Amino acid sequence: MFGGHDKDYLSDTWIFDLSSNTWNKVISNNHPSKKRLHGLAYIGNKKVMLFGGHDESTEFSETWEFDLDNSNWTKLTITGNIPTKRSSNSMSYLVDNKVLLFGGESQGNCYDDTWIFDLSEKSWTEVETTTKPSYRMYHESSFISLNRVLTFRR
Q1: Is residue 145 predicted with pLDDT exceeding 90?
Q2: Is the separation of the CB atoms in 64 and 78 below 8 Å?
């Protein structure tokens, strides 16, 4: 878990240990800035990816990776296109070393765009689809099977 909001924006990292049912705070000198409502997805190989989010005055389009083995955040250098700055987007790991990002919002504009991040090439590609959910924010998505992601909003 990263960041959030509790009377102030946070930039702390926590890991939940399922065997002991305890939260452990991770100390990392390098980490994303204080933010909330970012997309976060487990990407395999004991790593987590973060995109977007916002603080008091700024929305972000940064892509970060957290390595569970060394408890360190790395800001990825992206070449080419990147999704628009946004928060409240969803992210899900896919097969073939890819991550799906959908929707979100920025300064009152909601999005219905779909992006794929290629973990091998460290690049974002916008995907044009013939059918898609309507624009949305505060939704979740989850990988459910080969080539399928479920997106839902309460």
Answers
A1: no
A2: no
